[in-house]
Amino acid sequence: MLDGWRHQDPPTTKKLPIEVDIPEYISQCARADSATSQDQAVGDLVLIAFYYLLRVGEYTIKGSNNCTKRTVQFKVNDVTFFRKDSKGTLRQLSRTAIDAEIMSAHSATLKLDNQKNGWKGVCIHQEHNGDAIHCPVRALGRRYVHIRLHTTDVTLPLSSYFSSGQRCAITDTNIRACLKHAAAALDYPSQKGIPIDRIDTHSLRSGGANALALSGFSDREIQKMGRWRSATFKEYIREELECFSRGMSRKMKRKFGFVNIAGGVYHDVTTTTIISPYNTVPMAI
């Protein structure tokens, strides 16, 4: 699956967001009998990146085209899982909890160590979305269980995976290739008007931000999830997408009957005269 796309993007092309269908497509391919350990790792990481609004340097090792700065990749010990007890209270799971408990967690937190823009000691949290496979909490669980099966080193990055006993890691190039392959398979150019060369690793982070915006979450909530310190996060929400203007013209057609209550503050509008269309005599308003 990873070798399915080798297109080189123009360096100045601004990337566009994707929908959750691409991470889910990649995740589904990773569940196939022919899928490799690398495929499975990529399938999990794209889900995690989309739902947690991650930067590419936070979940992959640095490749030739990955120029992120001051970004530290999430490690195994940055992940905390939670389950609800019999009373519905959320309880933190032990880091030595059995696999079944990890894979049935109700939510999971990623702790920021020292990320871009100086965020440190901050936690981002997501709940189980109800899907047994295409869920960020389940994807984190699969990464956690897989790495723990092969090593006790909890400082390994989440990009780690093991194949034939050897530790390997997912790169930004691996993620980029899969995103483009999935976009082509889902016919993004004709179905959504998004060319393949407008899709890259940044499309996951902007796609997650767009999904939150279209779902009605506030700017503050999106900014907090994506860990933006300023309003620059709005650049990720692409208003040229059709969804943002859906229904606008119908709602704008409504007559609201508003009145400018400040009109009489600065001018005495009661003495203003107009010419009625029904006679030629000036009349007071």
Describe, in plain words, how this protein is organized in 3D.
This protein has 285 residues and is α+β, with helices and mostly antiparallel strands. It has a single domain, classed as Intergrase catalytic core (hpI Integrase, Chain A), CATH 1.10.443.10. Helix content is 33%, strand content 12%. It has 10 helices and 8 strands. It has helices at residues 21-29, 37-52, 99-102, 136-150, 172-185, 188-192, 202-214, 219-226, 248-252, 263-266; strands at 79-84, 90-92, 107-111, 123-127, 160-163, 166-169, 273-275, 282-284. The strands form 3 sheets. A 4-stranded antiparallel beta sheet has the order 2-1-3-4, covered by helices on one side. Strand 1 (79-84) and strand 2 form a beta hairpin. The longest helix has 16 residues, at 37-52. The N and C termini lie far apart (74 Å). 33% of the residues are buried. The model has no long low-confidence stretch (mean pLDDT 81).
| Total domain modules | 1
Strand order of the largest sheet: 2-1-3-4
> How big a fraction of the residues is strand?
5-15%
How many strands in all? Answer: 8
Helicity, as a percent range: 25-40%
Biggest sheet features: 4 strands, antiparallel
Secondary-structure element order, N to C = HHEEHEEHEEHHHHHHEE
Shape verdict: globular
The top-level CATH class is: Mainly Alpha
Distance between the termini: 74 Å
Number of helices: 10
Low-pLDDT stretches: none
Oligomeric assembly: single chain
Structural class: alpha+beta
CATH topological fold name: hpI Integrase, Chain A
CATH-level-4 superfamily name? Intergrase catalytic core
CATH architecture: Orthogonal Bundle
> What average pLDDT do the residues reach?
81
Radius of gyration: 25 Å
